[in-house]
Amino acid sequence: MNEWYTFIFNTGNEIPDLNEKSKIPKQPKFCLLCSFKQIHVIYLLSYFSEWLELSYNSIMNVWIYALLVVLETPLQDETCFILRHLFKIISNVAMNKYTNEECKNGLHMISHIIVKYFKKTDQAF
């Protein structure tokens, strides 16, 4: 998990403050994402759930959106659980009074995608 964090957020082994300007996170590249096996996509979505609980940065919206784009359906039960957990964490981050409006819009868009695209019509899945 830390290796993925290091790769995505361009950091050392520690989990730093994501608002630190000296480290510029990598943008997800479509060719890279398409080369991932589905298990890697699922693991990364799970990791983002954990990272969102620790700290939040708008680049996370971009990565989560990109991972959802390459997530294949039908979903297995474990993947549904991960998406449910991600939805709950995103909802909590979006309700945080310190999250700016632009980031909230991105978080709401991801929530909407999880609910609508993956045919989850209720928040509890």
Notes on the protein architecture:
This protein has a domain at 80-124. The protein is mainly alpha-helical. Helix content is 62%, strand content 0%. Helix 3 (38-54) packs antiparallel against helix 4 (59-70), helix 4 packs parallel to helix 6 and helix 5 packs antiparallel against helix 6. The model has no long low-confidence stretch (mean pLDDT 86).
Q: What ranges have pLDDT less than 50 throughout 5 or more consecutive residues?
A: none
Oligomer: single chain
Largest sheet descriptor: none
Number of helices: 6
Strand segment count: 0
Strand content: under 5%
Shape: globular
* C-alpha termini separation: 26 Å
Order of helices and strands: HHHHHH
Radius of gyration: 14 Å
Structural class call reads mainly alpha
Q: What is the share of helical residues?
A: 55-70%
Average pLDDT over all residues: 86
List keywords for this structure.
6 helices, single chain, 125 residues, mainly alpha, 0% strand, globular
Summarize this structure briefly.
With 125 residues, the chain is mainly α.
Write the layout of secondary structure elements.
Elements: H1 2-9, H2 30-35, H3 38-54, H4 59-70, H5 77-95, H6 101-116
Helix pairs in contact: 3-4, 3-5, 4-6, 5-6
